[in-house]
Amino acid sequence: MKILCISDATDTLIYSSIAPELYKDVGFVISAGDLPLRYYDYIQTMLRKDVYYVYGNHNLEDFDRMMKKGSAAFMHHALDSDFYSRVADIPAFGGLFIDGKCVYDKVHDLIIAGLGGSMLYNGGDSQYTESQMKKRINRLVPRLLYNKKRYGRALDILVTHAPPKGMGDGEDLCHRGFSVFLDFMRTYRPKYLLHGHVHLDDINAPRMSEYCGTKVINIYKNYIIDDESLGRS
Q1: Is pLDDT of 88 > 50?
Q2: Are 222 and 13 in contact (CB under 8 A)?
Q3: How far apart are CA 193 and CA 180, in angstroms?
């Protein structure tokens, strides 16, 4: 399976006329945040691929509506592609919102969860302390346990904005990673943790590391996962 992963910066390659052909084998798209919602809408229109996304700590349009009303019914149900057309006050564009949620993609046989936002550094939206992020994780636990019983695994892909602590994060508070993500990987063993937030100015900079069997990847700007063992093509 191929997954197009994006975060933090728009990519001229995706805007190019060859993008539909270039990404025709991609099953869907994952965003780790800090991108405009209309970028997701463009990708869905041009590539005809679903876009799963979380918020970062910038580009927070419709943040309050999506976090408070945005898909409470999503939490314990399989993905319904018609969801947004049936919920009032939700934008008609912007991809499939999974921030703070866990969904099962029946088409690709994948379980995907999202925990967006950064470390709390100036009191803005989509910023959390360690304890607040832990509470967000705790709200996912019933669904993760259900997944383990129903599908034989709790989770395949965790999408975050910030990295785990000590795994490619920065020294400043804003870019410091969450230690609770390390606990999460030890407990639930997703195949992938995909994050952004830390910009990679050098295209040759290392993106991937591993923790307790989970591949941790900085998907800044544009990254392709090509894994035949992951889900259904």
Answers
A1: no
A2: yes
A3: 13
| Locus of tokens 């994948």 | 110
Which of these, 127, 138, 139, lies nearest to 55 by C-alpha position?
127
Q: What CATH code is assigned to 56-218?
A: 3.30.750.180
User: Does the pTM of the predicted model rise above 0.85?
Assistant: yes
Number of Cβ within a 10 Å radius of residue 152: 7
Cα dihedral 96, 40, 93, 60 in deg (nearest 10) = 90
Q: What is the 3 state secondary structure string of the chain?
A: CEEEEECCCCCHHHHCCCHHHHCCCEEEEEECCCCCHHHHHHHHHHHCCCEEECCCCCCCCCHHHHHHCCCHHHCCCCCCCCHHHHCCCCCCCCCEECECCEEEECCCCEEEEEECCEECCCCCCCEECHHHHHHHHHHHHHHHHHHHHHHCCCCCEEEECCCECCCCCCCCHHHCCECHHHHHHHHHCCCEEEECCCCCCCCCCCCEEEECCEEEEECCCCEEEECCCCCCC
pLDDT, tens digit (0-9, with 9 covering 90-100), for 6-35: 999 999 999 999 999 999 999 999 999 999
Of 96, 91, 124, the residue nearest 110 (C-alpha): 96
Bridging pattern class, strands 214-218 and 102-105:
unpaired
* Residue whose C-alpha is closest to residue 189's, from 219, 217, 153: 153
d(CA 131, CA 137): 10
pLDDT digits 0-9 by tens, 122-164: 999 999 999 999 999 999 999 999 999 999 999 999 999 999 9
